[in-house]
Design a protein that fits this description.
This protein is mainly alpha-helical and 91 residues long. The protein is 68% helix and 0% strand. It has one domain (9-90). The chain contains 3 helices and no strands. The longest helix is centred in the N-terminal third of the chain and has 22 residues, at 9-30. The protein starts with 8 loop residues before the first helix and ends with a helix.
Length: 91
């Protein structure tokens, strides 16, 4: 079905992996700004939190923050890129 629409499995995996990385970057950028419930970016911040927290939580258990920096974002980014690369390599 996916190939009929002009997408190969590799393209779908690549696009989904890159989309998730973009969501991680958006969450990282939004973390620098104070959010209130009335903020126009509050719905975006909530959506990025809901989408990324299940992936980031296990990394946070293993990697403690360094000062005020949370390195779990960086590790999750690298792991996602490696997983996408390996999946694409095997397809």
């Amino acid at each position: 079905m996916i190939a009929v629409l002009g997408f190969s499995r590799g393209n779908v995996v690549f696009v989904l992996g890159q989309l998730y990385v973009i969501i991680l970057v958006v969450r990282a950028i939004l973390s620098f700004f104070p959010m209130t419930a009335s903020s126009p970016f509050a719905p975006v911040a909530r959506a990025t939190y809901v989408l990324t927290e299940p992936v980031l939580r296990p990394f946070r258990r293993v990697i403690p923050p360094v000062g005020m920096f949370d390195l779990s974002f960086l590790v999750a980014f690298i792991v996602i890129e490696l997983v996408v690369y390996e999946v694409l390599r095997r397809l």
